Amino acid sequence: MSTAHAPCTAPFFALFAAGAALGTLAAETPPDAASQPYPSADAETARRLALSLRLLLGLLALFIGFLAVSLLAVRLLRRHAARLGGARERTAYVDAWRRYRVTPDEIQRATSEPGAGDSTGPPPSGGRPPS
């Protein structure tokens, strides 16, 4: 099994960690008056909005983590599938197209030039019988 995609996972996890850290920091900072979505929102509404945002960011982080762990598990299971499953039983090979294939003898007969006494095919003189 090739490991061609292994270098791509390190930047993915680094970006994931940076996004999770920034999301956590952004969710923990209290909103000031200028950043509130509604100027007339009281403190209770702002707190509920911040909790909702924190919940959504947490669910998004859990979903991305689930995808990353699933990808890692699939890769590891594919790599070690031969050891987990043991030796595979070989099945009988059935050549379904065998009767439709042309044999080398048939190719030779179809592509060979007709001889002087051979009656198959047109005569080599362009349609006139040899004199």
Note the beta-strand portion. under 5%
Cα separation of the termini: 71 Å
List how many beta strands DSSP finds: 0
Q: Shape, please?
A: elongated
DSSP summary: helix tally: 4
Largest sheet: none
Would you tell me the structural class of the helices and strands?
A: mainly alpha
Helix content: 55-70%
Write the layout of secondary structure elements.
Blueprint: H1 6-28, H2 43-79, H3 81-85, H4 104-111
Helix pairs in contact: 1-2
Summary?
The chain has 131 residues and is an all-alpha fold.
What does this structure look like?
The chain is mainly α. The chain starts with 5 loop residues before the first helix and ends in a 20-residue tail after the last helix. The mean pLDDT is 74. Helix 1 packs antiparallel against helix 2 (43-79). 56% of the residues lie in helices and 0% in strands. The protein is built from 4 helices and no strands.
What would the keywords be for this entry?
mainly alpha, 131 residues, elongated
